[in-house]
Write a structure and sequence with these properties.
2 domains, eight-stranded mixed beta sheet, binds NADP nicotinamide-adenine-dinucleotide phosphate
Amino acid sequence: MKVLIVGRGVVGTVYGWALSQAGIDVTHVVRQEGLAATGTLDLLDLRPGHPKHARVTYTPKTVRQIAPSDGFDLVIVATKHYQAVEAIRQYLPDAPRATFLLFTANWDGTQEIDGLLARSSLLWGYAAASGGPDDRGVLIVTVAPTVRFGMLEGSDPDKFKAVTELFQRAGFTLDIKTNIVEWLWVHHAINAGGIGIALWAGGIAEATRSLKTMRLGVWAIREALDVVAARGVDVKCYPDAKGVLNIPPWLAGLPIFCAVRFTEKGRRLLLGSHFAHSPDEMKRYYFDVLHTGENLGVAMPHLRKLRERIERYPANPE
Ligand SMILES: NC(=O)c1ccc[n+]([C@@H]2O[C@H](COP(=O)([O-])OP(=O)(O)OC[C@H]3O[C@@H](n4cnc5c(N)ncnc54)[C@H](OP(=O)(O)O)[C@@H]3O)[C@@H](O)[C@H]2O)c1
């Protein structure tokens, strides 16, 4: 199978590297001039049978544009969620027979995508690997063994099988979501409150310094989940949401504190993270949920309280 990955961002690079290591033919399409030919990945690799700690060099096959004669079978759209529709518009004409695996967050549903692409050519996934560049440009990544996948109503089960098998070949196991779009909304809400509190406090390290701040974050996440519930989703079906909803208030914040401060993954998060690398996207999670909550008339006193400081949080460095 010939695979095109849109972009050479964090997720595109990690899975591009992992798939090409498994002998899969991977190309990245980029729109930036002058990208370095290689990238260094500092890995905490949790896939069974893979060296746990490694520093590797990835030299991806990179192009600036594609043509129908390239014959791509699969296009992995590993962009920020608000870049995905534009990316489909841009590459669909030159990959007319490809399956598109949307590998992004989602907050607005699939209506716009459905206007561009038949459901039979559309699948959804979401990275469980995480990371970001450190201050020297080395990608600090934790590679989780699972990858989330889901079919939409009308997705083609044979294409789903073929695509998920590629990831299995690369040593990943499948975490299949029955309703991946709803799951992504729940995830977005958890990010809105969780990342929101980190923006409010001035960073992940700052947010995890005080249990009081983290408790505020937990209340903000609960209100963000109320927004998803107001869309008609039964959030209690989702284990990640249940964890936040069921925690006693006096304990709220402690598990996040421990996860960031006392695990290797947490310590790596402070070295190089998606959070530090993309403040605009981080702010977008918060405002997506806040604006929907306002439109639906959801009470969100704690989530709203974060607004002013998040608005002032510096944008992406140029
Ligand atoms: N990083 C993480 O830890 C992590 C973990 C789990 C899930 N996710 C999710 O995975 C998705 C991708 O995240 P990410 O961290 O990889 O984002 P990212 O580092 O910002 O990468 C996005 C990439 O897409 C490229 N792109 C966007 N539109 C394009 C187009 N039309 N043509 C070519 N390239 C295009 C961007 O290129 P430009 O530089 O030209 O804009 C950039 O290289 C997001 O939805 C995120 O929420 C991320």
